[in-house]
Design brief:
The complex is a heterodimer of chains A (about 130) and B (about 375).
Chain A (H helix, E strand, L loop, with lengths): L8 E3 L2 E8 L2 E10 L5 H17 L4 E12 L1 H16 L7 E5 L5 H6 L11 E3 L1
Helix pairs in contact in A: 1-2
Chain B lengths: L2 H23 L5 H21 L23 H5 L1 H11 L20 H33 L3 H100 L4 H96 L7 H15 L4
Helix pairs in contact in B: 1-2, 5-8, 6-7
The chains are: A alpha/beta (about 130), B mainly alpha (about 375).
């Protein structure tokens, strides 16, 4: 279990692990997100992570997409929604989202950097 | 003290004063007379203060001289100051709604200065009311005027609506882009499918060509064997001719057969040579085909890989556009909320509404405080 007490998820073709990483948090996405409505599992998970990060003042979270081979548009929408919640926070409550991606997977290279524009400075692609 | 006792006490007081008057008369003129006058005046002032403090008016002089700062000493006061005071107290009772209640003055403490101050205060209040009334009359008109803020709110709402419309346009554009990217993605998927078929066909062709090549090799090998057989037959026919020549006349028939066999072997040798040549060409062609198919297969694989990257890029574009759509949608919702909020602000009654009647009421009440002209 991690410092936020958020459960990991393993459903259908996707596995999402939530782990501690140094002073922050690590969210590992492994597999495919190709279900019709992934927001059913992603929205509550990201909400728990977001509220926990703010409440416990955790400085950063690493969203690791390296093991994610496919992500559909509904899935990226859930990720964007999470990041926009971060955008709405006052500056003193903002935490950092570090997106780790696989450069061999073209869709990740093309799409994930776009997320950095939503909250400049608070979202980074590694 | 009753009025009668007061008068007696006043008479005694004056008698004592008269004694003093006599004493001062012994002083040589003119100082004795001046001292007498001063004593008399002082006595009357002091006596009045002592015995009729409630009225407070300087009134009586020994020779009936009346001295008063207001120069208005009522006759009733001179004859009966206490009764006059009571009458005055009754007159000072407020009659109806004539102004703010300041409370009745205690009859025992009322004096001329207090009344004068009250009159002055009333006059000042009336003057203030006269100054205030024009403003109060104008105030409802001012409050009826639209607030300059409402004009600004309309401008802000127009600005917000403009932003919202542009956000909607941006959303529609991103929607269009997403659809185009989706179509391109689907097309690339289709092409990928076609390429997979082509790659499969090329691989199959390559396999079949390899089989053909192997068959041609076997044919060449068989041809080699046949050539060897033909050579042996040829040697055999030569040997047969030699043997038939040794046999003489009896061997002539055998000689004819040997010749035929030798001719056959020669033809066979020629045919085998031609077949070998064709097989060689065939093998060369098959090898060329194999090389071409192999190159095509390799190229197709690379193209398939590129196409997969293109599809990945298109998928990335779809996701990127989806992010833009999500942001646009969020901005659109916020713009609509702001626009609705500003619309509510504009429609809300101005802060002055409802106050006008109250202000008019105040003006009317203040008007009532002024004397009727």
């Amino acid at each position: 279990m991690n410092r936020l007490n958020v459960d990991s998820i393993s459903q259908d073709k996707i596995k999402i692990e939530v782990l501690d990483k140094d002073d922050g948090l690590l969210v590992k996405l492994i597999g495919d997100i190709d279900m019709e409505d992934p927001s059913i599992i992603l929205d509550p998970l990201f909400e728990k992570i977001h509220s926990g990060m703010v409440a416990q003042k955790v400085p950063f979270v690493v969203a690791d997409f390296n093991g994610l081979t496919f992500l559909n548009s509904s899935g990226i929408k859930a990720v964007a929604k999470w990041i926009m919640k971060l955008a709405m926070l006052p500056a003193d409550k903002k935490y950092q989202i570090r997106i780790a991606h696989n450069k061999a997977i073209t869709w990740q290279v093309t799409s994930l950097p776009t997320l950095t524009f939503l909250v400049p400075g608070a979202v980074k692609v590694e | 003290m009753s009025p009668f006792n007061r008068r007696i006490a006043f008479a005694v007081f004056l008698a004592l004063g008269a004694a003093g008057f006599g004493a001062f008369s012994l002083i040589p003129l003119p100082w004795g007379v001046l001292c007498d006058i001063a004593l008399a005046v002082g006595l009357f002032f002091a006596g009045e203060r002592l015995f009729w403090p409630e009225k407070g008016r300087v009134a009586v002089a020994p020779a009936g001289l009346v001295l008063t700062p207001a120069l208005e000493v009522p006759v009733a006061f001179q004859s009966d100051p206490v009764a006059f005071q009571d009458d005055l107290a009754e007159e000072e009772e407020p009659a109806g709604d004539v102004g703010p209640e300041v409370g009745p003055l205690p009859p025992e403490n009322a004096d001329v200065q207090t009344q004068t101050a009250a009159v002055e205060a009333l006059a000042e209040a009336q003057a203030l009311i006269r100054e205030l009334l024009p403003f109060l009359s104008e105030l409802p008109k001012v409050l009826d005027q639209p607030s300059p803020l409402s004009g600004k709110l309309v401008e802000i709402q127009e600005g917000v609506d403009f932003v919202r419309e542009n956000v909607v346009r941006g959303y529609e554009i991103s929607d269009n882009l997403a659809n185009s990217a989706k179509q391109a993605f689907d097309l690339s998927e289709k092409v990928q499918g076609g390429l997979r078929i082509v790659t499969g066909a090329l691989s199959e062709s390559l396999g079949q060509t390899k089989v053909l090549y192997e068959h041609s090799l076997r044919i060449a090998k068989i041809l080699g064997l046949m050539s060897e057989v033909s050579d042996k037959i040829h040697i055999l026919s030569i040997n047969a001719s030699i043997v038939s020549a040794r046999a003489g006349v009896s061997g002539r028939g055998f000689e004819v057969v040997a010749k035929e066999i030798r001719a056959l072997a020669k033809e066979t040798e020629l045919s085998l040579g031609e077949i070998e040549e064709v097989i060689g060409l065939l093998q060369t062609t098959i090898a060329t085909v194999m090389r071409v198919v192999t190159d095509a297969d390799k190229e197709t694989e690379e193209e398939t890989s590129s196409l997969i990257s293109v599809a990945g890029s298109l998928q990335g574009v779809i996701l990127g556009v989806e992010i833009v759509r999500a942001v646009s949608s969020f901005a659109k919702e916020k713009s609509e909320e702001n626009s609705a909020f500003i619309a509510r602000l504009i429609q809300e009654p101005a802060p002055g509404n409802g106050v006008q009647a109250q202000v008019a009421g105040w003006a009317k009440r203040l008007q009532d405080y002024l004397p009727k002209e």
